[in-house]
Amino acid sequence: MTKAILFDADKVQIRHARKSDLPKYTKLLQKTYQDAYTDEEIGLTKECFSEKVFNSLNNQKYLASNLLVNNKQKCWLAFIGSKLVGSVSIIERKKDYELRGFYVGTKEQGKGIGKKLLELVLSFAKGKDITCDIYAHNVKTIEIYKKWGFEVDTKRGAFYRHWPEWPKGVKVKCIYMRYKVKQ
Asked: Residue 109 contacts by C-beta under 8 Å, 6 or more apart in sequence?
C-alpha cells in the first residue's frame, strides 16, 4: 500500500513513514547525530553515534517505534529522490504531544524542510502543547526551536542521558522545551 505524498516542492517529497523505511531512517539519524551532537569535551565522540550503536537491538526497537503512524502518533519523512533528508515523529500524551525526533540532514538544512515538517506537526497537535527534550550543548538546534516559538521548560528542569552503548561515565545534560498553543 502506498501512502500519499503530503508535500512536493523543490524536489522534496514528504510522506508518512513505513516500516520499510527503518534502514534509511537509521542512517539519517546516525549521520545527523554525528554531525550535530558530537562534543569531545563532554565525551561524546563520533563512536558514541556509530553505525554499530545505531544498529543495536535496543536502538533499532526505539527507532522502529518512532516510525509508527496511527491516530495517536505520526511520523513524516522528507525525501529528495530516494534519499531520506528529514523526519519528524510526534506522539500524543495525556496533556500534550511529545516530539520523539526531529531531524534534517546537515546538507539539507536551511531549505525550509524543517519548517514544512513543523507545519505538519502543528496541524496534527492542534489544541495541545508540544514538548521535547534536547541535548543542552546543541545550541544551534535550541535557537532554531526558539525561533519557531518553543521555550525552555524551566519547570521540568534538566536531566542526564546515558545510552547503554556509550562508554561508562558519559552522560549528557538534556533540557526540555515546550511549544505552547496560543489560546
From this structure: none
CA–CA separation, 45 and 24 (whole Å) = 22
**From CA 27, how far away is CA 23, in angstroms rounded?**
6
Indicate the helix (H) or strand (E) that contains 14: strand 12-16
Give CA–CA dist 91/145, Å, rounded. Answer: 18
CATH number 3.40.630.30 given to 5-179: yes
146: which DSSP letter?
A: H
Q: What is the dihedral of CA 1, 115, 180, 98, to 10 degrees?
A: 40
Instruction: Name the residue ranges covered by the structural domains of the chain.
Output: 5-179
Query: Which tens digit of pLDDT belongs to each residue from 147-183?
Result: 999 999 999 999 999 999 999 999 999 999 999 977 5
Cα distance between the two ends of the chain: 38
User: Strands (DSSP E) along 39-171, which ranges?
Assistant: 73-80, 83-92, 96-104, 129-135, 150-152, 158-161
Tell me the pLDDT band of 126, cut-offs 50, 70 and 90.
Answer: confident
